[in-house]
Amino acid sequence: MMGLRMLLGLGEAGGHPGCAKVVYSWFPKKDRATASGIFNAGPRAGSALALPLVAWVISTWDWETSFIVTGVLGIVWAIAWYIIYRTPELKEGLNPAERDNLIADRGPAKPKSEGKKEWLFLFRYRTMWGMMLSFFCLNIALSFFLTWFPSYLMASQGFSLKQLGTLGMIPPLVGIPASMLGGYLSDWLYRKGFSLTFARKSCLVVGLLLSSVISFATYTNSIPVIITLLSISYASIAFAAAVVWSLPADVAPSSEYVGTIGGIQNFAGNLAGIISSSFTGIMLAMNHGSYEIPLIATGVICFIGALSYIFIVGKIEPLGSVSTDDGVNSSSHPTSTETKHAN
User: Fold this and answer.
1) Would you say 297 and 59 are in contact if contact means Cβ atoms under 8 Å apart?
2) 234 lies in which domain range?
3) CB-based burial of residue 222 (10 Å sphere; 0-12 exposed, 13-18 middle, 19+ buried)?
4) Which of 4, 128, 163, 313 is 20 to 30 Å from 52 by CA-CA measure?
C-alpha cells in the first residue's frame, strides 16, 4: 500500500507544474492568474465530488472498488489530455496572429546553458527560496484537508459516512469559486495599473492570513461553526493557490524554466504533505485523538507563509532581471559574491 501510494504521488507530481507551463504557453501575462485559478479549481472540485462518490461506492460495494473507480477516472482523463492538448506552436487551426501574440507575450527565449545541472542557478535567488517556503506553509494546511479532514469529521466530530458525503463537501465546494476569484482578482489589480508584485502578493498574503482561522476550530464544538471556519480556511487556501501557480511563469528567466520552477515549488509543497500527515498522526497518538495541536500548528504555519511572501519573496519579475524601481530589494538577484563568481 505504501509503495502504491508513493507511485500515486510520483504520477501526480507533474500535474500542477505542467499546468503552470500550459498557462504560460496559452495565456498572456494579464490573464495568467485567472487561468491558474480555473485549473486550480479542478482539484477543489475533485475533492468535493470525491467525498460523496467514494462514500456511495463504499456503501454500495466496498472500499476496494472505490480505488478502482478513482483510478480508472484518472486513466481516462490522461488518455483524453494526451489526444487533445497541443501547444500554440503545434495547434492546427489557430489564428496565426493569435499564435504570434501568444509567443511574443512570453518574452525572448534564452538558450539553455550547457550542463545537465544548469537549473541549479535558480537556487541563488531569495525569491525562489521564499516561494518554496511559502508554498510549504500553504500546503501544510491543504494537506490537512486532503488527508486528515475526513478522519477529523468522523472521529473527532462524530460524523456518519452520510454526513461526510454531504456536510464534508462544503469546504471544498466553497474552494471552487474562491480559486477562480483569487486568480481573477490578481489579474484585475494588474490590469488596473497596480504593479505585478502588488497584484500577486496582496492576494497571496490575504489568502494565507485568512486560512489561519483553521486554528479556531479547536475551540468550539458547534458543527455549523466548525464547518464555517473550515470552509473559510479551505476557500482562502484555494484563493492563494490560484496565484501561487501563476508565479512560475511570472518569475521564470525564460520559457524553459517555467515547468522547472513549478516543480521546485511543488517539491517544497510535497515535503509539507509528508510532514503534515506524519505530524498529525503522531500528535493524535500522543494526545488521545485530540486535533487541538495539529489545528493550532496549521494556523500558525499559514501565518508564517504570509510573512514569507511579504519579506522573503522579492519583486515579481523574471529571476535575474535588472529592476528599475528605486529602493527595491535584491531578492530576485544573485548576491554580490555570486555575481563576482559568475563574472
Assistant:
1) no
2) 9-106+120-322+329-336
3) exposed
4) 4
Residues 6+ apart with CB under 8 A from 96: none
DSSP secondary structure string for all residues of 141-158:
HHHIIIIIHHHIIIIIT-
As for how many domains the chain has, the answer is 1
Four-point Cα dihedral 74, 79, 84, 87, nearest 10: 80
| Total-model pTM | 0.80
Q: What is the pLDDT of residues 13-54, one digit of tens each?
A: 888 888 888 988 899 888 999 999 998 888 888 877 887 888
The C-alpha atoms of residue 147 and residue 330 are separated, in whole angstroms, by 38
In a domain, 301, yes or no: yes
> 23 to each of 32, 63, 100, 125, 128, how far by Cα in Å?
6, 36, 16, 23, 20
- C-alpha gyration radius of the chain: 21
Residue 4 lies in a domain: no
The residue type at 189: L
The secondary structure element, H or E, covering residue 282 is helix 258-286
Q: Looking at residue 73, which CATH number applies to its domain?
A: 1.20.1250.20
Of the listed ranges 36-50, 64-78, 137-151, 302-316, the one predicted with least confidence: 36-50
Helix/strand/coil for 23: helix
- Which residues, other chains included, contact 292 with Cβ-Cβ below 8 Å and sequence gap of 6+? 218
Distance of alpha carbon 33 from alpha carbon 245, whole angstroms? 7
In a domain, 294, yes or no: yes
Q: Taking a C-beta distance cutoff of 8 angstroms, is the pair 23, 249 a contact?
A: yes
Q: How far apart are CA 93 and CA 336, in angstroms?
A: 49
Q: Which residues contact 143 (CB under 8 A, 6 or more apart)?
A: 272, 273, 276, 277
